[in-house]
Amino acid sequence: MARNKYPEETVKLILDVSTILFSEKGYDDTSLQDIINETKLSKGAIYHHFSSKEDILKAIFHRLGNENAEIFAKIRDDSRLNGIEKLRKIFQTAVFHSNQSVLLTVSPCLLNNPRFLAMQIEQIYELIAPQFVEPILAEGVKDGSINIENPHEIAETIMILTNVWLNPLVKMTDTEGMKKRCDTFNTLLKGLGIDGLLDNQTISAFVQLCNKK
Questions:
Q1: With CB atoms counted within 10 Å of each terminal CB, which end of the chain scores lower, N or C?
Q2: What pLDDT, on the 0 to 100 scale, is given for residue 163?
Q3: Which CATH code fits 7-49?
Q4: Residue 151 · residue 138 · CB < 8 Å
Q5: pLDDT digits (tens, 9 = 90+) for 5-23
Q6: What are the structural domain ranges in the chain?
Q7: What is the CA radius of gyration of the chain?
Q8: pLDDT of 62 higher than 60
Q9: What is the pLDDT of residues 133-153, one digit of tens each?
């Protein structure tokens, strides 16, 4: 395939093909040459947009993050739901949406790739916690469905626990271990004033994500 004259289409092609390769072969076992071969682009065309395989994975993360942000914004702004309902729906969407499976299959172990872990934590502090979780917590306090103080700090705490401690990409565990993590997570949040955030269906989804990796 010749290089597309439209840069955005070339970037999309590279990201689409790389996502498939990372999913099928694993990030570590996929080379830039594999991506070149599958896209039928020249090496120069690849390097015009991305300086390394790591840059390609960062762009995939960014694309998935933007897609998730659009979904979370719709939940945050849904006037039919109260605060706790929105918070539960955010979590359900995060684990059930197809993006999560893609992220699990394309990502390397985050402990062995601290730059990617740092990217995820940065996104929590700069985007997910302040723009989605904190406003929902504040709304829950206002409508009486959530009984907490310090929504800013609790928003960050919830997301760090979820994206680091519950994340099988950071520290793998078995089925029983993931169930215990989810139960402990619920116990901690109940002590803070948020009861039953992870229901049985969501816990089962976390367990399934653990089994996929």
A1: N
A2: 87
A3: 1.10.10.60
A4: yes
A5: 678 999 999 999 999 998 8
A6: 7-49, 56-212
A7: 19
A8: yes
A9: 999 999 999 999 999 999 999
DSSP collapsed to 3 states, the chain: CCCCCCHHHHHHHHHHHHHHHHHHHCCCCCCHHHHHHHHCCCHHHHHHHCCCHHHHHHHHHHHHHHHHHHHHHHHHCCCCCCHHHHHHHHHHHHHHCHHHHHHHHHCCCCCCCHHHHHHHHHHHHHHHHHHHHHHHHHHHHHHCCCCCCCHHHHHHHHHHHHHHHCCCCCCCCCHHHHHHHHHHHHHHHHHHCCCCCCCHHHHHHHHHHHHHC
Which two three-digit tokens encode residue 31? 């080379």
- How many residues would you count in the chain? 213
**Nearest by Cα to 120 from 168, 202, 61:** 61
Cα distances (Å, whole numbers) of residue 125 to 7, 55, 76, 132, 157: 31, 21, 17, 11, 10
Tens digits of per-residue pLDDT, 153-182? Answer: 999 999 999 988 998 888 888 999 999 999
The domain defined by 56-212 folds into Tetracycline Repressor; domain 2 (1.10.357)
pLDDT digits (tens, 9 = 90+) for 103-141: 766 777 777 778 888 888 998 999 999 999 999 999 999
pTM of the model: 0.83
Domains 7-49 and 56-212 share a fold: no
How many C-beta atoms surround the C-beta of residue 80 within 10 A? 6
What are φ and ψ of residue 198, in 5° steps? -95, 110
**Whole-number Å distance between alpha carbons of 28 and 128:** 28
